[in-house]
């Protein structure tokens, strides 16, 4: 009799455990990723790495610091650029003549920051007014 009660207790306990784990389990959602999506994501990461590499040059970093721009904030902004903006910046960097890399990089980054300030995405420069207000 005592064995039957303990078997019932374990059966009830296991049933509750089974029901609770099935209710609490999270189902995974998977989707197809095309080759084009995977390749474009790799290009975005590659473009971001190239831009960060150009920014990490000592002359560029010194010039930006001299302008009062925090290098950490620039890295954060580069991390938020979309694929088209990254591609445009890297194309302009690649098309610069030799010997003008530092000034060109600074000019390109400065122009991008002014545009993002004008679009109210950022507020880095006080002399730039937002056009969306």
Give the structure's gist in a few sentences.
This protein is an all-alpha fold and 133 residues long. The chain is 70% helix and 0% strand.
3D structure, described in words:
70% of the residues lie in helices and 0% in strands. By secondary structure, the chain is mainly α. Helix 2 (35-55) crosses helix 5 and helix 3 (58-66) crosses helix 6. It has helices at residues 2-24, 35-55, 58-66, 71-80, 83-94, 101-118. The protein contains six helices and no strands. The chain has a domain at 35-118.
Helix-strand layout with pairing:
Blueprint: H1 2-24, H2 35-55, H3 58-66, H4 71-80, H5 83-94, H6 101-118
Helix pairs in contact: 2-5, 3-6
Shape: elongated
Rg for CA atoms: 28 Å
Our count of helices gives 6
Average pLDDT rating: 76
How far the N terminus sits from the C terminus, by CA atoms, comes to: 81 Å
Notable characteristics:
elongated, 133 residues, 6 helices, mainly alpha
